[in-house]
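[agent] plan:
  1. take the single chain provided in the ticket
  2. run structure prediction with default settings
  3. attach structure tokens to the ticket
  4. add a short note for the reviewer (M.T.)
[agent] executing step 1
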Amino acid sequence: MNKERIIGILNEAVEREIGAVFQYMGQHYRFPKKTHPIAREMLERIAVEEMKHIEAFSKRIVALGGQESIKSSKVIWETDFSKMIKLDMAIEDEAIAMYKRHIAICEEEGDTETKAIYEDILADEERHHKLFAEIKKILEEGIEG
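[agent] step 2 finished; step 3 output follows
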């Protein structure tokens, strides 16, 4: 197994997750509590799950003898709620594609432990995408949520 290659993809994932946390928490406190309490709560919960992903990836990096990144992927601030959620769906799409590529790399390298971490987190990201699609629907239909 090429540890440096695995640490590299894990750090790429850490940076993506850090960016997602910044973006989702920033959106969480921008959504009006009065008119969109459900969306607001969902954004916070998803951000917390992304923090747990950072922890899982970082622990694996350290276990492999590496140093975890503290950089962030690009964060986009948006004030339009519908545009915010579309951006979030795109972030999740990118994560899903990235993690599928990373799983393939783990298979090539014979790293079943890292692969299992990615598979668990991939399932979370797919669920996040579905939650964002629900929020988008709520916003488009003008329903309080």
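[agent] step 4 note for reviewer: The chain is about 75% helix and 0% strand.
[agent] ticket updated
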